[in-house]
């Protein structure tokens, strides 16, 4: 989310992210962000310090912004899409700000519907199937349009899988301005980003920011999805 916002903030606000051209720039920024994202993994097992530093860097975002062409798009390789995307699922989210400005942004998940389809008889807790969110090592695909799985997200004992959860608390001068987040697996990243853009960049009211139709692209497959 931060990388997408850093890229889009390089354009004039709000004119540079408005209208059909603004949508095109958003889609292109999402492609770049999803390419970088697949280099992430559990920091207890993978050194992701440079990846995270790049994702938070305005200089890195400026470099990606220069690669966005306002008149055309490209194949996934152009965006650095070295690894296949994972298709995570589910989640529930809640955002709360109380009268004293205490704030919570909480996303939880058991992954698929009813998780692993197992209920603990002693606790009544439905067990998750989060292992599905790991990238799975396999032989190279005969389909040359599908890149290999991401090594940083390969399964290991005790390792946490990559997640799309994006619970976000927005502060300005130490004061709470918003609590945002979403459900929907991979759709979370784009959904949360677009609500943020609608409210803070395009100055929509909170309800309109959430209800506005959304655009989605995860780089691989190279398909744009949209709400009509």
From TrEMBL:
Signal peptide: none annotated. Gene3D superfamilies: 1.10.246.130, 3.60.20.40. The active site is at 91 (nucleophile). One of its GO terms (molecular function) is glutathione hydrolase activity. L-glutamate binds at residues 109-111, 133, 163-164, 185. One of its GO terms (biological process) is glutathione catabolic process. It comes from the Eukaryota. Pfam families: G_glu_transpept (PF01019). It comes from Arabidopsis thaliana (Mouse-ear cress). This is Uncharacterized protein.
């Amino acid at each position: 989310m931060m990388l997408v916002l850093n890229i889009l903030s390089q354009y004039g606000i709000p004119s540079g992210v408005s209208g059909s051209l603004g949508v095109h720039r958003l889609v292109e920024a999402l492609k770049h962000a999803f390419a970088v994202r697949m280099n992430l993994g559990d920091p207890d097992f993978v050194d992701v310090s440079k990846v995270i530093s790049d994702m938070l860097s305005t200089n890195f975002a400026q470099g990606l912004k220069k690669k966005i062409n306002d008149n055309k798009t490209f194949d996934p390789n152009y965006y650095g899409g070295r690894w296949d995307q994972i298709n995570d699922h589910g989640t529930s989210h809640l955002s709360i700000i109380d009268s004293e400005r205490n704030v919570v942004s909480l996303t939880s998940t058991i992954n698929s519907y009813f998780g692993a389809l197992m209920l603990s008889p002693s606790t009544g807790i439905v067990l998750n199937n989060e292992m599905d969110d790991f990238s799975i090592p396999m032989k190279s695909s005969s389909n040359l349009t599908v890149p290999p799985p991401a090594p940083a997200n390969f399964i290991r004992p005790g390792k946490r899988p990559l997640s799309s959860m994006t619970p976000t608390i927005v502060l300005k001068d130490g004061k709470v301005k918003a609590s945002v987040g979403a459900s929907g697996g991979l759709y979370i990243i784009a959904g949360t980003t677009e609500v943020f853009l609608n409210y803070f960049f395009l100055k929509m009211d909170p309800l309109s920011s959430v209800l506005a139709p959304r655009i989605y692209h995860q780089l691989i497959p190279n398909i744009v999805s949209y709400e009509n």
